[in-house]
Every structure is written in structure tokens, then in C-alpha cells.
Amino acid sequence: MGLLDILLGRSKPALPDLDRLFALPSAAVTLEAAAGFTPTGSGAVCFATVEGAAFEQTHREVQALLDADADRDGPPVELSQDGFGYSWLVSRRSPDQLSQLVNDLHAVNSSMEVNGFGPQLLCSLAGFRDEAGRRLALVYLYKRGTFYPFAPLPGEGQRRDNALELQVKAALADDLRMEQDLSRWFPVWGAPGL
To answer: To the nearest whole percent, how much of the chain has pLDDT over 70?
Structure first.
């Protein structure tokens, strides 16, 4: 960063650190103790929709890489699109396989990054649920290198449980690098894997 950047108040964005995803299993233990949420076994990687042969090749590589895992039911990664035009690569595991799910998310992100699709990566999420059926996602912002909780309220409409999100942020402050700018806690309505 140069002197002009300092004078104009510009800062360099945080570099993505995909290894931060590996903190999710230990954070899950804290989350269960603090708020009663346990992993659902579902997770996803979101990216700006990409077309073409290069992306198809990357998708096949990810499928082949994750297909080698015999502990999985169904396809290793499913590709879907949400109502907002974003693409999601979704991985499903049994709820007790959070570590393997994190490995899947890391592998998908890494493969896309290595194949030149890093700028299209937006976020990754892991789903959680409590005994009352409330849903929660821990969302990793790729370009910020931070996490935030997203807790949609049940029922119709797009409403979220802000109090729960702040409770989870406080509970996981020692386990995950939490996003401090609440305006960056983007809702991921209809996210597959949640």
C-alpha cells in the first residue's frame, strides 16, 4: 500500500484464506454448547454464474476428486442456481461428517481458484439446525476471509433472526474470524445447503 492510498483512506482487501474453513468443526462444538445448534451435513459454495467449457472441466474435476470418497450417499457435488442468478455447488454428508464436509467445501473453492475462477467465488456456507427446527448457516465470505451467521426465520417472507445471529457471533468470536461490518452480513435467501 502506497502513501497515496493511506492519504485517500484506501485499504487493500483481505486475501482469501481458505484454510479458515478448517476452523468450522471446532466452532461447531462451541455453537452446540452455546446455542444448541448441530450440523445438518449440508454445505455449499456460491459463485457468480460461469458458462463455458473451462467451467465444465473444473466441475468434472471437482466431481472426480470428491467421487473418490466412498463415505457418501448420492452425487459428490450438485450444481444448482438460485432465484437471484447465482450458482451453488452443494455437498451433502451425514450430520456427523462436518470435517469431511469442510474438506469438500475447501476442495471446491481451491479447484475453482486454481482454474482461474477465484474472482467469481462469493461465499461458502455450512448448515446447522437446533432441536426446535431453527436453521442457521455459518457463511464464509471468500473475498473478506471472514465468517458471519445467517438465521432465516421460518414461514413466509424473507425475515431473519437478528438476535440469534448476534448471539452466535458473540459465542464464536474466539473460534472464527467474524465479520465485524454487519452491513456485509448478506442474506442468502433460498441458499441450497441451508
So the answer is: 87
**Interacting residues of 190 by C-beta distance below 8 A, sequence separation 6+:** 82, 83, 84
Residue by residue, DSSP assigns 108-171 as HHHHHIIIIIGGGEEEEEEEEE-TT--EEEEEEETTTTEEEEE-BPSSSS--B-HHHHHHHHHH
Please report whether residue 177 resides in a domain.
yes
Cell numbers describing residue 125: 456456507
Q: Would you say 80 and 87 are in contact if contact means Cβ atoms under 8 Å apart?
A: yes
What is the total count of domains within the chain? 1
- The CB density around residue 11, as the number of other CB atoms within 10 Å, is 8
pLDDT given at position 166: 97
pTM, full prediction:
0.86
Q: How far is CA 125 from CA 11, 92, 185, 188, in A?
A: 26, 12, 13, 9
Average of per-residue pLDDT across 42-49:
91
For the chain, the average pLDDT equals 87
